User: Fold these one by one.
Assistant:
Number 1:
Amino acid sequence: MEKSIRLRPVNLGPLGTTVRQGANGIVYLSSPHPLASYPRAITERLAHWANVAPDRVLLGERGPDGEWRELRFGEAWRRVCRIAQGLLDRGLSVDRPVVILSEGGIEHALLGFAAMHVGIPYAPISPAYSLVSTDFGKLKFALELLNPGLVFAADGMRFARAIAEVLPPETELVVAQNPPRGRAATGFSELERDVTTPVAAKHAAVGPDTIAKFLFTSGSTGMPKAVITTQRMLCSNQQMILQTLPFLGDAPPKFVEWAPWHHVAAGNQQFGLAVYNGGSYYIDDGKPMPGLIEKTVRNLRDIAPTFYFNVPKGYEELLPYLRRDRGLRENFFSNLKAMLYAGAGMSQHVWQGLDEVARETSGERILIMTGLGSTETAPSATFGHWETGQSGVVGIPVAGVEIKLVPNGGKLEARFRGPSITPGYWRQQEITRAAFDEEGFYKMGDALKFADPADPQKGLIFDGRVSEDFKMATATWVDVGGLRMRLILKGAPLVQDVVITGHDRDYVGALIFPVMSECRELCTGLAKDAPAAQVLGHPAVCRHFQKVLVDLAAEESGSSRRIARALLLEAPPSIDAGEITDKGSINQRAVLGCRAALVEELYSESPGSRVLIALQTSQAH
């Protein structure tokens, strides 16, 4: 019965992968389809659509009154040119770029495109560096690295604390509203100037290697890195995606998305798709969490997307609303060509739920797909742009990108080369050199495997990180090494070692190898030879570890830095099973594999009494 329900017709690019065997088990993959020509600068597409469809909505966002505030292509182009003049008047350059502290919005878009139009890089910074951080360490590092000549915050008062602590007094601050007290600030409208000849001259000098923006990585292992993003990267990757998903160019696409613009998926790819293909991008002011998902639902009742992007957690939160709200799902699926997820793996039950509600609503199946990429790859390097029938297939190389699969620790480490790959990290030459191999392939750190080893044409599957760090279901990176060490230190002397859990989960957990001799010291009245289960279940031991976890969680903010649940392991790590090396170090991957049942117990909806709970799951977010 289900096979008779057809896939909604959608224009997809051709399939095919060229496979070449190298030495030492290395495999090279590429697309047999050549990459077509692409613009030298992304604002050429903005100018094109301003001429072809000046009254079409480019960008929409909710205003203070709750109504949609819309920016059309013609107006956007005129204002971009005027703001570009204002930036040139200030003498901004690659050595004095623009920094944006606030989230995506109309002013954010105008300022970013104005800077890029005349060869001035800009850097959208994670708002969390200003609004969540207590020491502003990452923000301070980013500003010292970039030395910006202008910093923009849409709402000055909202960012006042960070501005006062970090922004040098000589750096110009621009705000759209609410300038912070005690600090000189320029109104956003003051950036616009009458356009003079230098704007066209500076734009003519912009080429494929001109730096368009700096995008900071998450900084899961120390301070963030500023990824150099060139015009070539932006434009070639947009053309790669268009050849993979030609339906984006058949009719103006429409997007409704919450994902932040300081991330490459939204800031480069998704909003870029609207500009490149003459589409409309509506900013969803919601998020996939209680209290904010309702805003997403409201926005999707208003706007019917043609291509929908979200992280797996976002789809999981949206799914119950789609199931019970017929008006919502009818609007959502009315014009939808495909759904894209990225940032983490999607649980198969979420995949199946989306498929079921689509079939019930429209009588058709809607393509669900993912790909693989990173900030350094602009981002899209692969796409699974066919009916894979399962979650996790990241697909095949897009046109113009080569993949090199290198055997590494029992996995195939993925490396990438092509016009959409970054030249490196800004003012961090040693890190740049380490990021590329001898053939110029970028070493992403992800592992891939063939969906069918006998048939490479069936695509690749994400196989985890070569390193230990992982992403949660919210697409947030977890610094495994740092979190592990904090728990060991906090739990000393009762903690021998720790394995961090949470890959594609909603919260972080821990498997703790305790020091049994120290634990026994807490067990008053218990026999000295009592079995491990009794020792670890003793109230005094449980209270001790409970306090360690609660205290550790209280010291941190953010779901990736707080351990919500933990299990004390009765059996020590096994050297035979590869859980521990002969040098005494824990093999995280092996422990997780050997003790998969315990991980499932840790994340059970009804956890047993031996699961220590430091945070309720709602707090863990």
Number 2:
Amino acid sequence: MSDLSPVPDNRAVPTATEIEAGATSPGLTLLRKALQVVRRHHSVVRGWRLWADTEAIHADLRLGHGGARTIRFEHAHDGSAWARTPSFNISLVGKMDTPPPDEEQAALQTLIDLLRRSDPGGLRLPLPSPEVDQKQVDRSAIAPEAEAARRARAEEAHAALADELHWASFLAYKCITTEDLYPHVGPLGDVITTEQLLDGWRSTVDRIREGTAPQKLGLYVHIPFCTVACTFCYCAKTDKFRRQSFDAYVDRLVEEAELFAPVFDGMTFTSVYFGGGTPSLLSPPAMKRVFDTLYRSFHVPTGTQVIYEGNPDSLSERKIEVLAHEGKVTRLTIGVQTLDDEVQRIVRRFNKPHHVADAVQFSRAHGIKHVNTDLMAGLPGQTLDSFKQDLEFLISLQPDSIHLNAFRPLPRVSLAKQGADDMTPERVDLRNQMMAWGFERLRLEGHQSGMGQGNRRTANAANLQEYNLRRQNSSLLGLGFPARAHAFGSWYYVPDTRLGMDPGLAKRIEGDRTWQAVPADDAEERHKYLVENLRTGFERQEFIDLFGMDCLEAAPDAFRKLEWLGVLEIGEERIHSYTPTHADNAMYRALFYSPAFMQRAERGWGAEYDRSVDYRDKLRHLVEDFG
């Protein structure tokens, strides 16, 4: 914070985490210096303060005419921005009916000019990690009487809404144990035909062209095969296949791309993601064939973010060469998970440190711009020391990002099915210790959070497709079994999964083309946005830009209840969220589920609901409980 008086704030509580005077990073130092210069040379700027949420640094300027201006600084990405520097996207917060007065406009232009001249690119900002510090508002700044009153209101609300919250905790439990992506198409979707799906996509593409649907358009390709299925994994995969079925799957993948291609004639895809399973099991010739088909069928401009997942032991240099050149891959995600020999034996993984080091080295040598590694916490047999050792090894390789993922003992994973995993309270606590230590260790190494995702040390290393899906409700064409997809305003859908993974995949390879879907009218789109973004809070103008109405109008009853419960603080420009843990967030977000979804859930799951079961406790067992 500057040495000047902070900007007066008209919101009910101070907005977010104040940046301490001692907090530093090259990016923050540059912002401070530029603001100091602007204040010295432009009398309209009387003072300023800096504060952070999980996605941006905000500068509140106090202006001489009695007004205020908030400027938002995000790490550079390809989304919209008022101004850009090599390291930052810069936005003016709030609706502007008229241009700023000349003197204010001159001050803002000076700030932008200073930043552009001095920004070398790649600078990071000290953003609080959403996994470690979800309390985005500094409650210590609130008067004790006001805080006591807030707590009393929250207790009153929890008592009054006990039945509704219990149903919400049941829904959260069912969603997490079946499919954790709203609106939960796999367990609750209806069967539709390919022609219905194509008609929906035609409508969506028309809306994208007209500007009445989000302009981002993603492409997702699923490769469901694994050499050996990890016992902790809940992704859609199989290790029961022969080379013949693998080759036939690639044939179906090519046919599916060619089926959808005419609908997207003239459209530009803004992100591509290959997930699994283990996409790196594709042979170099199969990789080339898939890449050739996709780039021939769909317009993917050079420089588009293309993400590819792989296991270290199946990422040979030849494959990485194909990914870099024919595949135009810009971000390789290397699934390490654990390097502890005993833990690997339990979870059926076989990666060695040299596999990981070689994959990182080959990726750098062949020009893949961003390298990401994944590491698990809380696996059976894993100790805090072994987790630390694995993380220190990954840090030594200097990847662009390291994703820490907490083990979730969901009923559908092999460990839980075999009864081999005992997730005791002590192990839950150990898992939380690992995650907290890991996030702090990454922070000290310069890995900062941004865009509501895990920590990273390199600008533009974030997963843009995930960000666009969550923050823009963008459309996503999914190819392969069982790739999830979204045609804005038409459908959320997946290939037909009712038979289960292996039978469903076999049927798909034989040529079946039926789908499960949930209708996605504009009301459902609005609810989906609220569900997916509760954890980080809402910019009201962003919602208006997307949907043409204020978010409070989209779900007034849910906002009222969540504010009463103490989960939300509603400000004029931003709505702040305080869901202390992932388990709490899973329950509270169910209040944003649409009426149409609630009816669907009642039909599909209502018979299983048991008022005597503590579903919230079951959630804490399954989902990482730290904040």
Number 3:
Amino acid sequence: MAPAKKHRKPSLTPEAARTRTATSLLLTIVKEEYGRVPARLSRLLRDVVALYDGRWPAYEACEVSYHNCGHALDAAVTLTRMAAGWNRSGDQPKFPEDLFLCGIAAGLFHDAGYIKDKGDHDGRGGKYTFTHVQRGMEMAGRYLTESRWPARARELVPAMISLTDYRHEPEATALFHDPLELALAKMVPTADLVAQMADNKYLPRLTDLYVEFREVYEREGAEQIRQLGAPVYKSAQELKEGVLHFYEEFVAPRLERYGRMDRYLAVFFGNGHNPYHENIAANLSSHLLDLRGQWRRLGEVLRELGLASREQINAALAVQQQRAQAKEPNETLTTAIRKTLLPWINHQTSGRCLGEILMDMNAISSSALATGLLHQMVPDSLLEKMDRREIATLLRISVLLQNTRKGPWILRQALEMANHLLGCEASSILLAEPNKEEMLIALPTGPRSKMLQGQAITLDMGLASWVYRNGRPALTTNVLTDARFDKALDRRFDFETRSLLAVPLRINGLCIGVIEGVNKKDDNFTEHDMHILTMLANMISSALMSIIQEHLTR
């Protein structure tokens, strides 16, 4: 008798997985705080997800891409963590369970007003940009009444949502007389702002926000909107370029007005660690860069230059991945350079790069590959800004790195030259060991280099770790104002870090570590410095790749 076939459960979509993770987090935190999960909370989560999915008889599915279910859940999770941090701080009475649940409900419903009524096929919902708060208040009120929530909850939740109407902000103290109700109410607009600005995809998602704005512009008229005192953006790019101004002039003052309730996130996570603040700082820092990304992967460059199609590049990447998986398990990057540098990463690699595979497939010519590589490694915009001294120094470093096989001291000399070029006090190459959740300071230079050699930092703390995790460069001219900076190494080795510049170190598209510069003479690290250090990182990665290839062919 043939064995019965096993039916695999269909895999979750990214959206469904995100929803499941967020709802699980909410339920877990509430249980930790109150020892149980109230039935009406479980029902609330199911019902709100159903609302956004279009399974309520009175409403269409949510069609806007920015103020969607994911954002509602993010805001609710942020608020829940904030409120739990308040409970755990011990500085004041805990929120009663019923009040805690009201905050969650407000977080879930605060942007539900973008959802259209059943049968409304006019636009996607962006037309409600200026009225969505009132609509969300009404939707929440009706739901809580029909679901028989306590009478005070039916009053509190809409009032809390009203604080997210940033065009007509009500005075919170006039709405909430009880201190605990007032404190939790202030967390609702705080969570709304913090959740979206801390999103790892915040900047790219501003394109979705502009689509919503454009719909209301077309409906109401740009001039009419200007007369209301609201900004009118001409493009998504203009919206992105205004991020720093938006934070400084809009977000920061409101966080202050609401008592910086976001500080309780650090209590929730413990040890002063606040990933929300770290991500916000990162998003603002990365905004100083060219938003298209000065240093892009080769496939993207080749596609933009019209030298290879997306299909050709995807096919080549698939070949690259297959060859990487075919390697023997012991042929890892860690094995390949263990005799040359500190252990660094346990990840398989292919000996051939994307460009070579594209040539094998006759997708591009050698001249097209050369053009793409040059645009990737030396963008025209950077070349035009480099002075003679910078070009000469980088040329000397390039020649020096051709002798990397003589030993890691060659890389140290390259870093010393970079210190002189950038005016840095110190620099380091850090190599990741993901299995150990840490990065090793493989090659340090500067006054504490001997003590720092081989020291480890965790992958969840510090600016360099953030750069590795996100694969994006970062700089700070004052580490005391950057939430990503970790003071642990400074305290351990009696050193004062004032300014930092860090860029990813990649081999064949894989981020394997970070190169950082420390303490520029005037502490004024610039975007130009970042581009110079990124070019150096590209040169060093090529040198390291030659070491790996030599090891693999032995």
Number 4:
Amino acid sequence: MAKNVSFKYVNIKNGFWRHRQTTNRDVTNKAVRDRFIETRRFSALDCTWDESMPKPHIFYDSDVAKFIESAAYIVQKDPDPELERFVEGLIDKIQKNQCENGYFNSYFLAVEPDNIFKRRDAHELYCAGHLTEAALAWYDATGSDRFLAIMRRFIDYIEKVFVVDQSASFMTPGHEEIELALFKLYRATGEVRYRDLAMFFLNNRGTNDKDTTDFVDSWINAFYNQSHAPVREQFTAEGHSVRACYLYAAMADAAQETGDDALFEACKKIFDDIVSRKMYITGGIGQSHVGEAFTVPYDLPGRRAYAETCAGIAMAFFALRMFEIDPDSKYADVIERLMYNGILSGVSLGGSEFFYENPLEIYPPFNNKDVSVSEEHREHFPAAQRMEVFDCSCCPPNLTRFIASIGDYIYSKIGEGVFINQYISSDFAEGKIKVKMEADYLTSGSVRITATGVNFIAARMPSWCKSFAINQPFSREGGYVFIYNTSKPIELQFEMTAKLVSASHLVIENNHKVALTYGPLVYCAESADNGPNISNLAISRNLNAEIKFDPYMAADVITVDGWRLYEQESLYADYTGRSTKTRIKFVPYFAFANRGEAEMLVWMHAI
């Protein structure tokens, strides 16, 4: 098994991700804080709600928790006394309002005190999990265990209610997440009972009648929250995609901690089901607005893609844990696809606006096509522009914690050997091991690695790369090249070419269409560059690509040969097949919708 190197040992000092982390620290985290002040998420912790005030949501504690976790990751690297004081003030509120028995949930204490642990889908355990992860991160960053002690009291109470007394109205969370926190808590404290509580929730999912009677609406069934079968008998990704991937990540944690082969086999089958049948080219998952859910294989619509930002982050969590058990490049490949595409698109280049959904096609004139009939009942399409905050604003603080801790995804170790999973300019030191990486990965594809105190370096061969050069003898295994002579710098050169990718014929919407990629980046065309009606464009198979760095996007933009098809004004007419040669400009997918409302297209016809 491999052990991922924590971001706290990793320094990202320059390059693409340092730029994004700086924006995350200086702009994004502050923007989330300001919006959460305005929307009373922080003040909900006072537990003073009455009928004259806006009612807090059941998930506000989780939003606050992710903000605190993000702050912890930020101050771990860049001390910020003002931010630390702000977070300590939030912890004061939680401590003040925690019940004698350890329970804390701002919504239920203030709004529904008679329904504590009676509504399975009301996010109590989900919020408790996020708060616990935040407490662990805050302790790790600051050394203060006050918040952690608060949450351990709460977890002790949860154990009493669910395991000892079994007095709750349900047995497992309606929204998974606490399982991940419990495994982290077990690893941090060595208390086996925390691992056992996580296993209790996993082992009882899909096995009891207690969990089948409480659904938030009549249209939701047991597949929605992965309660349709015991976890070891779940082999396909089903239901709400965020809940699902939090569960699958916890199943991988459990398989790693306990050596449970049946759990790991279930995880492998689920991972393959997602990557081979239900994942967008951007790494996005969750195809449908209905239930924010996985649907059937190969149903990957572009305009109606849900691909929630949080789902992409949850999938990265799942893949990271799978790699620790089975060090194979396919897991790091998925993380890379998400990092640079389906997750990063969730935040604007400026850092203060967000996408909840990440579509692969936008045509604004049709987005409100049903408004003349009904304001309430109309076909759902993702927003064409990012927003500063949402009613359900889980994605913004999830993005801030993910970007702040991106160092978690770069290196792994087996003994004194180091795996290079992501090519990000950085260095880390842990014990006698020291590794430094200089990477111009997104533009030239060049990487230089120096290392001391290691037995080997294993460098991932990205799935998109067909040709590479290396200055050292190597062997290959599991999608990695293994270099044992580390006495001099290792130099890698990945061939960077703009290329066209096609989809399976079973992805009906993309039949006879292509997507443009360059290295790990997926590209899209926007009307901001190419004029209106971009669906009338067709890309040349020969490309004749011009690649140019764009400082605003901090990545290359690509212009290629193509055609603008004959634009016919009459509704129907004899087909002519006429077209005009043109050049088509593409920008990285993560950078779309940053220049005003515009049409956008990933998949395009080719001629």
